[in-house]
Write a structure and sequence with these properties.
It contains 16 helices and 11 strands. It is α+β, with helices and mostly antiparallel strands. It folds into 2 domains: 205 residues, Cytochrome Bc1 Complex, Chain A, domain 1, CATH 3.30.830.10; 199 residues, 2-Layer Sandwich (Cytochrome Bc1 Complex, Chain A, domain 1), CATH 3.30.830.10. The strands form 2 sheets. Strands 1-2-6-3-5-4 form a 6-stranded mixed beta sheet, sandwiched between helices. Strands 7-11-8-10-9 form a 5-stranded mixed beta sheet, sandwiched between helices. Strand 4 and strand 5 form a beta hairpin. The longest helix is centred in the N-terminal third of the chain and has 18 residues. It is globular, with a radius of gyration of 23 Å. The protein starts with 16 loop residues before the first strand and ends with a helix.
Length: 437
């Protein structure tokens, strides 16, 4: 065992799956001191599963399921008392998240089971759901980070690619012709497949509710065969690469410009994706990363960098972003590109950088398991991406053998085999002169 980690197993180590009679997988994680119970229901039906003409279906269906769960007076009363329920749509799956007191968990499990049997709502509620979605899209278009998540995937992935959709999950088109009946059938085909799972984290009293839930999830809701989904997206060919691709969005931000650099990555459950965790830490993920030290500490061009890996089963997305003075937009872009190229060859990762990045990744594990909600979310994300439920306990062995040459090759693949894209948000009149010079 190396001296990077703490030597102790993560709190997910005991998350052994068991199965209800219906075939639904269930993971129970005991958090002895937790005052809240956390429930996550994971099912197929992410936005990558949508037909091109019905973008937004997954978001609408998730809202229908969430409102189906809260149709009963008892569920609504629990919300009034502080219980929280929300939905989320990701590329490869969707989630329902519930947070409440342990003694309320049996009611939520019963309401969830009933909704899985018949996910229906009154027709007038669908009108409200559509309005909520359009309002969500409008709001996303006024927020720089969400605007980037809406626009960049369509420019990164080729036309018709399953992931060429807004990564916010809200979709592109109004989808006004989608009926309640269609959404119910959509859910019925996806809610109970081999990838579906129920995650419950909380105290022993919270987990005891699962024994009573066996009767709620009746055998007649048996897990169905997995629906026919789109094939794994192909990687972009080298012919799709070329010079710098820049999209400029006119959105005046006084003297600032928001810069977003995006590149498609690797299937999450692959060694390349594990190497990418270290690559990202060295280049932009840590405070002491190369880009942050150069742009913030040495040049004073930005308050700080942000770096996010959006994991998917087939081909993820890496976005590096920062806010800079508008007159520094192009120099900052050139510097970020230079740092990327340097790590790919001229200035490869040093042994000290590698050790620091691996140590950073492993020492973060306790921090992402401090709250019960974090534990439930971590396991849910692993299941959506087809990772092992025990991924955190396997992480040390997955990254400990990574070498500087692996980092170099990782960067080389990203730069030579995939199309990168810049999105610049700011005063177009002021910024265009830099890019047209």
């Amino acid at each position: 065992m190396s001296n990077f980690g703490s030597g102790s197993r993560s709190r997910l180590a005991k998350a052994e799956p068991f199965f209800f009679d219906s075939g639904l997988r269930c993971f129970a994680i005991e958090c002895s001191r937790s005052a809240l119970a956390e429930l996550r229901f994971i099912y197929d039906g992410g936005f990558a599963d949508e037909a091109a003409a019905s973008s937004g279906t997954a978001w609408l269906a998730n809202s229908v399921l969430r409102r189906s769960i809260t149709r009963s007076d008892l569920a609504r009363s629990l919300e009034t008392l502080g219980g929280k329920i929300h939905g989320q749509v990701r590329a490869d799956g969707s989630l329902i998240s519930i947070s409440d007191l342990p003694e309320h968990l049996p009611v939520w499990l019963q309401c969830l089971a009933q909704a899985l049997q018949a996910p229906e709502i009154p027709t007038e509620e669908l009108i409200s759901i559509r309005e909520d979605r359009l309002a969500t899209i409008s709001r996303e278009c006024t927020e720089a980070d969400n605007l980037a998540l809406r626009l960049l995937p369509e420019k990164i992935y080729p036309a018709g690619h399953p992931y060429a959709q807004p990564f916010t999950g809200s979709g592109k088109t109004p989808a006004d012709d989608v009926s309640i009946g269609y959404l119910a059938r959509y859910l019925n085909d996806r809610m109970l497949t081999r990838r579906s799972a129920l995650v419950v984290a909380g105290s022993a009293s919270a987990l005891s509710a699962l024994s009573g839930a066996r009767d709620c999830f009746a055998p007649n809701s048996r897990v169905a065969a997995e629906p026919e989904l789109s094939s794994s997206p192909p990687l972009l060919s080298e012919s799709a690469t070329g010079g710098r691709n820049v999209a400029l969005i006119d959105y005046p931000m006084e003297d600032l410009a928001a810069l977003y650099f995006a590149v498609p990555t690797f299937p999450r459950n692959s060694r390349d994706a594990d190497v990418l965790l270290v690559t990202e830490a060295v280049l932009s993920g840590m405070f002491t990363s190369r880009i942050n030290l150069e742009l913030r500490e040495r040049r004073g061009w930005t308050y700080g960098m942000r770096s996010s890996l959006y994991d998917t089963r087939a081909q993820g997305l890496w976005i590096i972003s920062c806010f800079v003075s508008a007159d520094r937009a192009l120099p900052a872009i050139e510097e970020i590109e230079r740092q990327f190229r340097d790590l790919a060859g001229r200035l490869p990762c040093s042994p000290d950088e590698l050790a620091g990045a691996i140590g950073y990744l492993l020492r973060r594990i306790p921090g992402i398991q401090e709250r019960t909600a974090q534990i439930a979310d971590t396991l849910a994300q692993a299941l959506v991406c087809d990772l092992s439920p025990f991924y955190l306990d396997e992480l040390e062995q997955r990254v400990i053998g990574i070498t500087p040459d692996d980092i170099t090759e990782n960067c080389h693949q990203l730069l030579s085999e995939r199309r990168s894209q810049w999105l610049v948000i700011g005063d177009a009149a002021r910024l265009s002169a830099q890019f047209n010079a």
